[in-house]
Amino acid sequence: MLHLTAGRVGSLLARRATAALTNSSVRMASHGHDVAEMVDMSQPLYVDRVDIPLPDRPYKDTLSPAEESLKQKEKGPWSQLSKEEKLALYRLKFCQTFPEMQEPSAEWKTVLGGIFIFLGLTGLVVWWQKVYVYPARPRTFDDDWQAKQKCIDTVCHDRSHGLWLLFLSFSRGLAKNNHEEVILLYTQIKLEVVGFF
Amino acid sequence: MALPSQLGFQDAGSPLMEELLHFHDHALMVVFLISTMVLYIIVAMVTAKLTDKLVLDSQEIEIIWTVLPAIILILIALPSLRILYLMDEINDPHLTIKALGHQWYWSYEYTDYEDLGFDSYMIPTHDLTPGQFRLLEADHRMVIPTESPARVLISAEDVLHSWAVPALGIKADAVPGRLNQTTFIVNRPGVFYGQCSEICGANHSFMPIVVEAIPLEHFENWTSLMSEET
């Protein structure tokens, strides 16, 4: 039988109190875990942001004696401050200037490079599919088959193909509605083109 | 039929399809305008140098972006309802045809004057003559006279099918045990293709519909020919 003696209760309560009063990251850190740096959000913070032009506190809080004397000088007329002093005062109050905050980075190169790499890999996969997976193209895609497809007033095969045919028939002086002549012309041109390639 | 890599509708073969084309142009233009405006706003917000963090409300813009969409919706709804009611108008068809879906072919019955019925199977790719359309040609076409209101009664003998001809703006489910009716007028002579539009088994993609519209005098020749054949 376990008796909860006064001593045991005391030590239990002490452990509970320690757990309540320290925060979990301190306990984790003391037990060998890596813990991120904690920011106390209840205190005024300094941030370099374009939409917070005047942060809640100055950048440098604790000042050396030289900096203290400069701050005293700032309380007088500013025309007596030299250029270097003005710059030093700025750097006491702020970490980065606006141009420094808005400096472009080279991140876009990494992003674009990554995109191209994946596009290239996709291209490899597509090419492999074309060679090893797809069945043969049906014979209805052949040029002479498509040339024979007749539609009233429209060209039935690929629009760009049809436009090319129309252009050729115009340039060789044939009426565009004359399908038979166009088919003959097309076969003739195809032989010429195939010869070229 | 649809051309390769065609994105838009096929040329209309019936007055209803013409109406649908024009309505689609109107609705799509509204969509493009709204999308362009949204895209512009997104780009403007993303590229803005300064941010106003203290905006709480604005009654004026809230009113605008409530009233303007309501107006746009009305402008879309009015033509849409007009076409909806147009489809249901009384039109006294001259011809009634029954289109029955089977696995995996269509059969057409012209029983107004005499018993004419035939099956319409897809022509397999290896049987096509050069120039025919792959997966779209059928051995017997459903022939219709031009400029005559026609009624098609659609049903099925086994499983669900759907009788669709996009160029005429027609699609109606073929339900076993049920008769669905659709009426249309074909404006011009021509051949109009469609495909079965309800999954019906292994050869669902291989039971096309071909409607051939010819002038009335030739239609009578065709019916005599078909009657002799069957």
UniProtKB/TrEMBL annotation, chain A:
Keywords: Membrane, Mitochondrion, Mitochondrion inner membrane, Transmembrane, Transmembrane helix. Pathway: Energy metabolism; oxidative phosphorylation. The keyword Membrane applies. The chain crosses the membrane at residues 108-128. CDD domains: Cyt_c_Oxidase_IV (cd00922). It is a single-pass membrane protein. InterPro entries: Cyt_c_oxidase_su4 (IPR013288), Cyt_c_oxidase_su4_fam (IPR004203), Cyt_c_oxidase_su4_sf (IPR036639). PANTHER family: CYTOCHROME C OXIDASE SUBUNIT 4 (PTHR10707:SF15), CYTOCHROME C OXIDASE SUBUNIT IV (PTHR10707). Component of the cytochrome c oxidase, the last enzyme in the mitochondrial electron transport chain which drives oxidative phosphorylation. Belongs to the cytochrome c oxidase IV family. Component of the cytochrome c oxidase (complex IV, CIV), a multisubunit enzyme composed of 14 subunits. The complex is composed of a catalytic core of 3 subunits MT-CO1, MT-CO2 and MT-CO3, encoded in the mitochondrial DNA, and 11 supernumerary subunits COX4I, COX5A, COX5B, COX6A, COX6B, COX6C, COX7A, COX7B, COX7C, COX8 and NDUFA4, which are encoded in the nuclear genome. This is Cytochrome c oxidase subunit 4. The lineage of its organism: Eukaryota, Metazoa, Chordata, Craniata, Vertebrata.
TrEMBL record, chain B:
The chain crosses the membrane at residues 27-51, 63-85. The lineage of its organism: Eukaryota, Metazoa, Chordata, Craniata, Vertebrata. It is found in: Mitochondrion inner membrane. This is Cytochrome c oxidase subunit 2. Residues 1-91 form the Cytochrome oxidase subunit II transmembrane region profile domain. It comes from Scophthalmus maximus. Keywords: Copper, Electron transport, Magnesium, Membrane, Metal-binding, Mitochondrion, Mitochondrion inner membrane, Respiratory chain, Translocase, Transmembrane, Transmembrane helix, Transport. InterPro entries: CcO_II (IPR045187), CcO_II-like_C (IPR002429), CcO_II_C (IPR034210), Copper_CuA (IPR001505), Cupredoxin (IPR008972), Cyt_c_oxidase_su2 (IPR014222), Cyt_c_oxidase_su2_TM_dom (IPR011759), Cyt_c_oxidase_su2_TM_sf (IPR036257). It holds the Pfam family COX2_TM. Binds a copper A center. GO terms for biological process: ATP synthesis coupled electron transport. Component of the cytochrome c oxidase, the last enzyme in the mitochondrial electron transport chain which drives oxidative phosphorylation. The respiratory chain contains 3 multisubunit complexes succinate dehydrogenase (complex II, CII), ubiquinol-cytochrome c oxidoreductase (cytochrome b-c1 complex, complex III, CIII) and cytochrome c oxidase (complex IV, CIV), that cooperate to transfer electrons derived from NADH and succinate to molecular oxygen, creating an electrochemical gradient over the inner membrane that drives transmembrane transport and the ATP synthase. GO terms for cellular component: mitochondrial inner membrane. One of its GO terms (molecular function) is copper ion binding.
